[in-house]
Known about the structure:
The protein has 13 helices and eight strands. It has 299 residues and is α/β, with parallel strands linked by helices. The chain has a single domain, classed as Aldolase class I (TIM Barrel). The chain has an eight-stranded parallel barrel, surrounded by six helices.
Amino acid sequence: MITHTALKGLGIALITPFTDNDEVDYQALGRLIDYQVTNGVDYMVILGTTGETPTLSEEEKAEVTRFSIERIAGRVPVVLGVGGNNTAALVKRLKNDPLTGVDAILSVVPYYNKPSQEGIYQHYAAIAEASPVPVIMYNVPGRTGVNMTPELTIRLAKDFPEKLVAIKEASGNLAQMETIIKDKPADFLVISGDDGLAFPLITLGGAGVISVIGNAFPREFGRMVRLTLAGDYDNARAIHHQFLDLFSLLFVDGNPAGVKSMLNAMGYIENRLRLPLVPTRITTYEKIRQVLDGLNIKG
């Protein structure tokens, strides 16, 4: 079982590239995985929101997982998205799936059915009991419709220290994140779910970021994360500021449309998404190209 420290630094919320005929582009996926690993990412997250997981069939999810684990080949830890709003179904999967090659799972707060805080507690308690690997909880109220409070996060971290080892916090609320950092158990990790908040969160005691923009810039963004973790805030801040314009463009037309536009402009993938998601508007794409040209950052 991996240690908590293996989940510090830069994690990549890996996209799923598609071909022009709407199939998973495994050739592009393999290239992208190699690009991430050779540029020093700390771990990879497969089948998260950025991977357009809701639009993949069960067969495709299984094959993307198998292919990615095989291509990563133990070079960095693998985190697999295993979430949902049916607790019993999740528990059954965790008990029956050996999760071969998976070092940890990322499991989102149940969405759409909007459970109470006690319902969220019981959901994660059941996952903690069932999961054979460590669990990163994932709070993203903008997508789930419910916020997991700092008090609940800390309660879960204290009650299940061996399994609930971290939270990916994408509430956008730095005060909430700081409260968790202040009161959490020493080994529990608070990971940014927003690229634009990675720098300030790490300065407050956060452990890193699960990044979208890192798909395109693993080396540069990873350097910012590591400099911040090392306390070199001036140099880290300079890189953070360098990316500010891209942060604002990243989500203007939704995720992963922005980062797929970036990767397409850099020549890595086809600019394809699956409905109901669509590519960025032409105006956004051209702004992204202009910012990329100004950065003069190459893969």
